[in-house]
Design a protein that fits this description.
By secondary structure, this protein is α+β, with helices and mostly antiparallel strands. The protein has two domains: 122 residues; 155 residues. It is 31% helix and 24% strand. The protein is built from seven helices and twelve strands. It is globular. InterPro entries: DUF5996.
């Protein structure tokens, strides 16, 4: 697995992120709401990401973002198929046009809210006409990192007995993330809109990997708790891991993960140790039961 900073593949990342947003927005329009936006997440496949089956009308469809030969593919229950490539020099506006035509071609013209969410821009897709570089190898390196993260997060969270969101691609922030819930209601009272009010309404800890962004160049694992952490927090024993009071998050850069003798085990240990710290600081009820080893 190769390391790459966000700036090394920025335009390719934007192309993938914007395309994933379009896929997620389709689910947003077609599926009944679930708590914490669980209905709109994307899952991994052996060669990319998928919406999974999306019911629509009397049938339904699936959309895949494939990275073996970079393209977006869609297939409907009627057998109709359509696709378009991810290519060097293509703008977000052009991808959006092709995405709209793809939905029409399979017989499911779903209208989308065309404004990117949780990104550095709120300009509608159709206004983003600047050509973007696209590097297929960089896209595949990112996908390999996502699969590595997914496997580690899946192993870490496997024995948790409570409500959880399995490792999935959160297309708003473009991170591979799992979420563990305590079961305690915590309605959001801070500033923000519908995204925050839906996402923050129960006590939870979120464990994820993201490739970096406009403000943070290094890909990293992170742990975010809600209610948000306050004050100092204990350190964890994984080399390179640290707590950032400004963001109220723990971080472990991928660069430090890859230095470990067993990178997979380092991520699992990072998540476990931070989880113990957060649960103690926030006095999780039934923590011993929620984390009691399974009888298998």
């Amino acid at each position: 697995m190769h390391l790459q900073t966000y700036s090394q593949w920025r335009e390719t990342c934007i192309a993938l992120h914007m395309t994933a947003q379009m896929m997620g927005k389709v689910k947003l329009e077609c599926l009944e709401p679930q708590p914490e936006w669980n209905h709109v997440l994307l899952d991994a496949t052996p060669d990319g990401f998928t919406t999974g089956f999306v019911p629509h009308g009397t049938g339904g469809f699936e959309i895949q973002l494939r990275l073996d030969e970079p393209q977006v593919q869609a297939v409907a229950t009627t057998g109709e198929e359509a696709s378009f490539p991810l290519e060097d020099g293509t703008s977000v506006a052009r991808y959006y046009e092709r995405f709209t035509l793809l939905l029409e071609a399979i017989g499911h013209p779903v209208p989308l809210y065309p404004v990117p969410q949780e990104m550095f821009t709120q300009a509608p897709f159709y206004t983003l006409v600047e050509p973007l570089a696209f590097d297929g190898e960089a896209a595949r390196r990112y996908f390999a990192q996502c699969l590595f993260a997914r496997n580690a997060l899946l192993d870490f969270s496997a024995g948790f007995r409570g409500k959880k969101i399995q490792p999935s691609l959160f297309w708003g922030t473009f991170d591979m993330t799992c979420v563990l819930f305590s079961g305690k209601p915590c309605p959001y009272s801070g500033e923000g809109g519908i995204v925050e009010r839906v996402a923050f309404d129960e006590q939870f800890v979120e464990f994820g990997f993201w490739p970096g962004d406009e403000t943070a160049d290094d890909p990293a694992f992170f742990v975010l708790a809600y209610p948000f952490l306050e004050g100092a927090m204990p350190e964890v024993s994984v080399p390179g891991a640290y707590y950032d009071p400004a963001s109220a998050e723990y971080f472990l850069k991928l660069e430090d993960v890859l230095r470990a003798d067993d990178p997979h085990a380092a991520v699992v240990r990072f998540c476990h140790d931070v989880f113990v710290n957060v649960a103690a600081a926030q006095r999780w009820e039934r923590f011993d039961w929620l984390t009691r080893p399974l009888l298998v």
